[in-house]
Amino acid sequence: MAIRDVSWEIMGGGVLGPAPFFVAGIVNVTPDSFCERGRHPDPERAVAHALELAAQGADILDVGGESTRPFARAVDAAQEAGRVVPVIIALAERLGPGRGPVLSVDTYKARVAAQALEAGARIVNDVSACAFDPGLIEVLAQYRPGYVLMHSQGRPGEMQKDPRYRDVVSEVLSFFEDRLAALVRAGLPEARIVLDPGIGFGKLLEHNLELLKNVERFMALGRPVYLGLSNKSLWGGLLGLVVHERSGVTQAATALMAARGVAVHRVHDVEAARQALTVVQNLSPGR
């Protein structure tokens, strides 16, 4: 598949792109994220880490206050907002309007999303597709941010207990078709939505591999594809690697997915991802 430039509309009339790739740097303001590299439990450290990712070339800074790793415990909206909103306010002040990366909030809660958008975020990255907090769809219709529509089979606390599919690719594709239509009916423009098949969210190793092998099928819906593959347990299952050993395979997979048309890459190591994507861009025919 030839690499093509894509665009993603976000809140306030802004547009990311046109460009072949976007890198979203992970900023977890949590004590319990699976990857030490993305874990910054206090606002000051989280802001410093985010600014470092910005300097490395992040297009997006994705700020999260609740771990969504398998079997993670939920936190309430007040605690989550207390973690992420100060970081977003500080980053919005430091980066300034129209300069540097776009701010994203990684949440499924309506209250947290609304506060983050008021504070300066312009994208909502939601692992639930508005299923965990139905009020989120009203926030999306009101603010019309960029939105990551992700597939997950179940909540983080139980999603890996016994995930089952007859045909994982067809089922995720059908899910995207249904949820895209519902979001547009609710008032969120389709141009503001990107699609994330949710690698590791209610999927076994074979499901994850099948989704990645068939990633082009999701592009048939006309929206950019967003992937989070960075240091995931997928690589432990496939290669027996522990978390701190997964950087190399993360960059290899990032390059392979980019060469097949995946546009948005959510990563811990922005600099390494940028290098992998630059290689893809310069070795692709017609670029």
Give an overview in words.
This protein is of the alpha/beta class and 287 residues long. It has one domain: Dihydropteroate synthase-like (TIM Barrel, Alpha-Beta Barrel). 40% of the residues lie in helices and 16% in strands. It contains ten helices and ten strands. It has helices at 43-55, 77-95, 110-119, 136-143, 168-186, 205-213, 216-219, 233-239, 247-259, 270-283; strands spanning 6-9, 15-19, 22-28, 60-64, 102-106, 123-126, 146-150, 193-196, 226-228, 264-267. An eight-stranded parallel β-sheet has the order 8-7-6-5-4-3-10-9, covered by helices on one side. It has a two-stranded antiparallel ribbon with strand order 1-2. The model has no long low-confidence stretch (mean pLDDT 92).
Envelope shape: globular
From the N-terminal CA to the C-terminal CA, the straight-line distance is 13 Å
Q: What's the pLDDT, averaged over the residues?
A: 92
- How many domains? The number is 1
CATH level 1 name? Alpha Beta
Say what the CATH topology is: TIM Barrel
Helicity range = 40-55%
What is the level-2 CATH architecture name?
Answer: Alpha-Beta Barrel
Q: How much is the radius of gyration in Å?
A: 17 Å
- Name the structural class: alpha/beta
Q: Biggest β-sheet, characterized?
A: 8 strands, parallel
Low-confidence stretches: none
CATH superfamily: Dihydropteroate synthase-like
**How many β-strands, per DSSP?**
10
Name the helix and strand elements from N-terminus to C-terminus, one letter apiece.
EEEHEHEHEHEHEHHEHHEH
Number of continuous helical runs:
10
- Strand % is 15-25%
Strand order of the largest sheet: 8-7-6-5-4-3-10-9
